[in-house]
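Sequence in, structure out. Go.
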Amino acid sequence: MPDTDIIAAVSTPPGPGGVGMVRISGPDAILLCKRIFTPTGGWKGFPPEQRLALVGRAHQPDVPTDSIDQAVLITFHKPRSYTGEDTAEITAHGGPLILRALLEAAVDAGARLAEPGEFTRRAFLCGRMDLAQAEAVASHIFAATDEARKVMLRQVDGALSGAAGKIREKLKEAKVLSESAIDFPEDVEEPEAEHLRTLISDSRLLAQELISTAKEGIALADGLSVAITGTPNVGKSSLLNALLQEERAIVHEIPGTTRDFIEARIEIRGIPLKVVDTAGIREGASEVEVEGIFRTRKVMKKADLVLVVIDQSKKLGKGDRTLLKETENAQRIIVANKTDLLTANSEMPEEAVYISAKTGEGIEKLRDAVYQTAFGNQKLSSGAVVTSLRQKRALAGVIESCKRALEVSSPEASPECLAVDIDEALMHMGELVGEVTNDEILEEIFSRFCIGK
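Output:
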């Protein structure tokens, strides 16, 4: 990324609004604004005082009479800006045509259109935040539940980065001791060797504590996919409606009503869930149903959790047994539906959760079972949380390196091998916060951002 580029983007959501904002960042970004903005009464000095709101008019480059809109300009001088570069924000009325004209004026004056996440990427490259914080910015913006918003804000504020810093300090101290054992073997006493093992062990335990938050943290960031499956007419669509508390899916006694899958989003204990109501699986299905069944099996394989719905008022059919066999190694919940009917099936698996999608009986119990099955008794701490697979992989590398280091940390072992393992652990910690990374990983992370952030 050429550091001479000035980038610009609309940083407010698309569509009409009361106000909208164009952000401009890079060397000479503030000077560029002089060409497309004139304060009421003219410039009293340039560059303007940072963080001072100037009221005036946005206009075409170097043509103050060719006005675009009334506007407000706020400048931020490097390094005290979001990106760490000179940055300007021009706020005008939020009409799409107004903002497009303002953005075009910025480009005509010398800026280029920003790529997705480029402002935050520059903030990372300028040292305004580390990579864990940068990832959390996108997760915070796209948070689907209030709990997710709170957790992601803590990570933006540096909760995970602070926890990572504590591990790194211990590993750095261990590195000093291990290298001392190589360079000055006669001077390293046994108590120091014991202290070295304690530092490595503590680092491993702290990394394990962090990685234990990954399952729920990643679900908060990305959402949990849940597939509702079963044979026709067992109440899959009724269950979806009961979970949503609205009539989203068509319910009918004729088999095969759902021929494609229906997606909906719900929340359970702050975790966003994408629930998919799939086509019923049965033999002798029509050609259209066969395609739906094929898609059902694809959804089931990708789902984090499968709800296998069975009509508990009837004996288990061949389709029920097939589904139970297909999902026995998946993370699943067997849902015994239609408890409102007086008849009961004695063949139901013991672990089944009994509900009536029609009356709502047992739905809250099922919600609890979904959370319990997915996360167990895990409780997110009020501090650091792992929210991406990239972070989880980095911490797994730390744990493995520390494990190897402990295995070779006895006085009889080679100090050179120990130093290598500690260096590897530090490298993985560098991956976590972005000190060790590559362009491919950065592209993957920042491509998730919206343009303008």
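Check: Residues 68 and 98 are 7 Å apart (CA to CA). The chain has three domains: 7-114, 135-213+384-446, 220-375.
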